[in-house]
Design brief:
By secondary structure, the protein is an alpha/beta fold. The chain has three domains: 44-232, Cobalamin-binding domain (Rossmann fold), CATH 3.40.50.280; 262-339, Transcription Regulator spoIIAA (2-Layer Sandwich); 357-547, Transcription Regulator spoIIAA (2-Layer Sandwich). The chain contains 19 helices and 15 strands. The protein has helices spanning 21-24, 43-55, 76-79, 83-93, 143-153, 200-209, 213-221, 229-232, 294-300, 321-330, 347-355, 370-375, 382-394, 413-426, 455-469, 480-491, 494-506, 510-518, 537-543, and strands at residues 66-72, 98-104, 133-137, 169-173, 190-192, 226-227, 263-267, 269-270, 290-291, 307-311, 334-337, 360-366, 399-406, 432-438, 473-477. The strands form four sheets. It has a six-stranded mixed β-sheet with strand order 2-1-3-4-5-6. Strands 12-13-14-15 form a four-stranded parallel β-sheet. Helix 5 crosses helix 17. The longest helix has 15 residues, at 455-469. It is globular and about 65 Å long. It starts with 20 loop residues before the first helix and ends in an 11-residue tail after the last helix. Residues 1-36 and 547-554 have low confidence and may be disordered. The chain binds iron/sulfur cluster.
């Protein structure tokens, strides 16, 4: 749960006792769905886990009366790359009387339609169903399918109201709670909203020490940032925002088996001071940007680290980012940044990045045309991209990589043509790659409720863009179909969450999702997009205040 870059978890004090399912279930239980015998684990899986554990550096091996499952509903290499997941791991291991064992979606389980082996914890090879408490971190909408698979394979119903008294208590949190956690409410008994460093202690204490599930839920519902769907319905508590003294989040375990092999991650800032219209982490979220003192960053990175990843929603906006990159480079470390804003890519910064090991300069083009970039209030201008391309070439980088969205409100073929022409001109300076994602409007943003462009329209625009580029840039695009699934969930409520579960049960391919969502009246090429346009300035002002319905402050 609670995994976030900008919404992480940390410890609080807990003295506690536990009633772990592993010990209490089975004998004396009249509930037939609980495991009393451990499932067969394939030799290959056992070996894979052993190899990964052997390669880890920094794991906190701990024993305690209460053991909870810390669950990531994507495979190991994704979960262990999440700074927030690592932070909550460290936080639970710091609690008195309680410890955690990590459980990941088995490798390949995130492929559409893939079947999975029963998941077991890495530390104890214990089936998920043997834990009485699961703390789950959910980063984004499509990971809900992984959560359903994990629970189902553990003979535990994913639907919260179908779980019985002795079934695990499922507590979720993570980045998803910053936009729309309601589809998750179909599966979680409790949801910790926003940054969880200060919530995690009391939540774990309640989850492991009260006798009955009803008592636990009542107690959790009184916590300031916890949503208990069976009690609160869809009225959300205020988002957790921790004291700045708890920053920065940092890696606990280093492993070569992640996306960011053996890279020590540290938060250089949290939040953002900008106001991009589609972004959940914009300045109105949790007080905007919070900056970590460079001296604290230098002192926190351990001597054994060879690579450091500076993390934050807008990390290149850190006022001393160039000094930080240079200092780590002087110490002989390779440096990576989680994001680079185009207007920050001035000559000294690009030079510092090159010296720190960058071969590809990656930034966001955001929209296909200047008109649409202006519409979503991005500050990237043509001159920024041209300068970035020239500096990248000057300092010997190999490539410029640009991310952008297509299917923005009001987008036309002319916007796509402008993109093709502009990217072609950049490719004369340096080789260019494009990473495209269809626009999905998110709750808690000014563009909330903007319709999805439609799968066919997105695919047509992609064809047009490729044709216009005529091979002058490499193009990689995320699937328009799965973007539509993400959109339905991002805008949806519990019934959309339940429809996702139906799709997973039916087999989990796109066609299963389409059928499940069509029963709710959604269509991948739904109506409404044609009439949508980028909002005007007065409309934008009105939209700034859009929020999900929340509980009145008590
Ligand atoms: S897209 Fe990036 S720069 Fe814009 S508000 Fe979000 S985090 Fe900030």
């Amino acid at each position: 749960m609670f995994a976030m870059i900008g919404g992480k978890a940390m410890a609080a004090s807990v003295s506690n006792l536990d009633r772990l399912g592993a010990m209490t279930r089975g004998a004396g239980s009249n509930q037939t769905h609980h495991y009393t015998a451990r499932p067969m684990l394939s030799t290959a899986t056992r070996q894979l886990i052993r190899t990964r554990l052997d390669a880890e550096l920094g794991r906190i091996d701990k024993d305690a009366p209460a053991r909870v499952a810390l669950v990531y509903p994507s495979p190991y290499h994704v979960g262990m790359s999440s700074l927030g997941f690592q932070q909550i791991y460290a936080a639970i291991q710091a609690l008195p009387g309680i410890c955690c064992e990590r459980v990941f979606l088995p490798d390949g389980g995130d492929e559409p339609g893939a079947k999975i082996e029963t998941a077991v914890s890495y530390e104890g090879l214990k089936p998920l169903a043997e834990f009485s408490v699961m703390a789950v971190s959910v980063a984004y909408e499509l990971e809900l399918a992984g959560l359903c698979k994990l629970l189902e394979q553990s003979s535990t119903s994913p639907l919260r109201e179908k779980r019985l008294e002795n079934d695990p208590l499922v507590i979720a949190g993570g980045p998803l709670t910053f936009s729309n956690p309601i589809p998750l409410a179909a599966f979680a008994d409790a949801i910790v909203m926003g940054e969880a460093e200060e919530s995690i202690g009391p939540v774990m204490l309640i989850a492991t020490s009260f006798a009955s599930k009803a008592e636990k839920l009542q107690a959790l519902s009184r916590e300031p940032h916890v949503l208990v769907p069976s009690i609160h319905g869809e009225e959300l508590p205020a988002m957790g925002r921790v004291d700045d003294s708890l920053l920065p989040a940092k890696s606990t375990i280093l492993t070569p088996h992640t996306e960011l092999s053996n890279m020590f991650l540290i938060e250089a800032e949290r939040g953002c001071s900008r106001g991009c219209m589609y972004c959940v982490m914009r300045r109105s979220t949790n007080g905007g940007m919070r900056i970590v003192d460079p001296e604290v960053i230098f002192a926190t990175v351990p001597a054994y680290a060879k690579k450091v990843g500076l993390v934050g929603a807008a990390v290149s906006d850190h006022p001393r980012i160039i000094d930080i990159v240079r200092e780590f480079t002087t110490r002989g470390l390779q440096v990576g940044l989680s994001s680079l804003r185009p207007d920050r890519l001035k000559e000294p910064f690009v030079e510092a990045l090159k010296k720190s090991g960058y071969k590809t300069l990656t930034t966001a083009l955001d929209g296909p045309s200047q008109r649409l970039r202006d519409g979503i209030e991005r500050r990237g201008r043509i001159e920024h991209y041209v300068a970035a391309a020239e500096y990248a070439r000057k300092f010997g980088m190999e490539r410029l990589k640009l991310y952008l969205m297509i299917g923005l409100p009001g987008e036309t073929d002319e916007d796509i043509d402008e993109c093709a022409s502009f990217v072609s001109s950049l490719s004369k300076i340096i080789p260019v790659s494009l990473g495209l994602a269809p626009f999905c409007s998110k709750r808690n943003t000014p563009l909330d409720r903007m319709p999805f462009a439609g799968v066919r329209i997105v695919q047509k625009r992609l064809v047009r863009l490729r044709a216009g580029l005529r091979g002058r840039a490499e193009v990689r695009a995320t699937s328009a179909r799965w973007a539509w699934v993400e959109y339905v969930l991002a805008q949806g409520g519990e019934k959309e969450g339940r429809a996702l579960y139906e799709a997973v049960q039916a087999g989990g391919t796109f066609s299963h999702y389409r059928k499940a969502f069509e029963r709710l009246g959604f269509s991948p090429d739904g109506e409404g997009y044609g009439a949508a346009s980028m909002p005007t300035s007065p409309e934008k002002l009105k939209m700034q205040g859009r929020r999900l319905h929340t509980l009145a402050p008590s």
